[in-house]
Amino acid sequence: MRDVERATGTLQPAAAEPYVPPATPPETLDRIAALLAEAQSAHQAFLASAENRRATIAAGRRGAEGSDAWSRGQIALADVASGRSKVMVPLAELDRLYVDAELAGGELGRISAARDEVIALVESENQTIDQLRGGG
Known about the structure:
Elements: H1 26-62, H2 68-83, H3 85-103, H4 109-133
């Protein structure tokens, strides 16, 4: 083999350009803002409902199981707990927007921030329900 036939040199891969996701469309940003406002409004309604029913729920905890006070307390607690679903609906929609954006390679920051805020509202409501049940 002659020197000219020998392979020499090194291969250097080309530097990869960082991926820049496309900007979130304005209609999606509007939808995110509307869902966040809906969740915040539902959370305020939840807090008001919990406060309005707090005494009935507490009386029910003190009452004997099966008594009228206990039954009223259970119904009041169920009413409060069902109010939590009104915050879960916007969260589910934000989850869908997040998955759609992720699959499309889109920007996730704004959707993620809104989801995190709504998740915090749900966690707060879970704690409130737990406290009303007497668990915390």
